[in-house]
Amino acid sequence: MSAPDHPGLHAPHIGALPAGPLGTIADVSGVTVGHCTLARGELQTGVTVIRAHRGDPFIDKVPAGASVINGFGKSIGLVQLDELGTLETPIALTNTFGVAAIAQARIRAAIRANPQIGREWSTVNPLVFECNDGYLNDIQALAVTEQHFHHAHDSASTHVASGSVGAGRGMSCFDLKGGIGNASRVVGVAGRDYTVGALVLANFGRLPMLTIDGIPLGRVLAERAATSAAAATESTSTKPEQGSIIMIVATDAPLDARQLKRLSLRAAAGLARTGSVYGHGSGDIALAFSTAYTVPHGADFITLPPLLADERLDPLFRACADSVEQAIIDALWSAVSVTGRDGHRRLSLHDCAPDLAQLLRPSA
Which family does the record claim for this protein (predicted)? Predict the structure, then answer.
């Protein structure tokens, strides 16, 4: 369900930096991802969970920073993250109306693991991001529950699916089928190789905007749709951009929370290259975390490894932008067509453009 079969047709590789061996966010050591997908008629939704390490995230927190590029969203946990600069739960992605249920599930799980939370210890800060999948999914059904979070959490592994899976099941991107996308890049900094990985929940954009590796593919597809009586999309050049994208960036480079916030902001460069202008109704949020060290809960002093100097961050910024752009393309490339609420349908990129290889071929 995560990857359609297109023999010999590979997504274009963005930039000159090499990908990691998996080509996903799991190329960053310690990172795992799990999905729970609901695909039953009117219900086309799900949950995706990203774990920074296999240990207890409340006891061993990881440094993180976030950038709110456009704040049209209903996430939970960003205020404390911005203040303290650490993750203390796995990152969960779901639909807009599923945020509360997933946050409550995350709180209960943390309390079971550490009964002192909220009593002898501080409360836990669940981090949940969302996009609105209401075009394909009956979002009013409030179908996402605690058991779906646990399924995604417990199934997390380094085998990370992309496309119409997990939280991405009901998402639309550039009026096509969107969803989960993955990518990674390996870059040399100060004599060492580091990995930057990205996972996106892509649910934004209008078809005429779509740009893949610099090629304005969306214009061609929009013109076709405008002249076809059987057009599967409703896109026009004047329709406002609505939707959202959540961009999660992981790295094994030793950075502090301030530097990770700077890294997260570079996700906007990759997003812009695909054609987004961060429209009024689009919530665009990026978060970056590092697996290079952990911050122990309740410690009196914290010993940090040698951190990269700010003057050495440019290669990581480049890797972030390339990874996010690649991940958005991966979401489109991997998605399958989905029919959901009230017969609404989103065609996959491949079903919308059977001649995709020719359209993306560089002109002579």
Answer: Belongs to the peptidase S58 family.
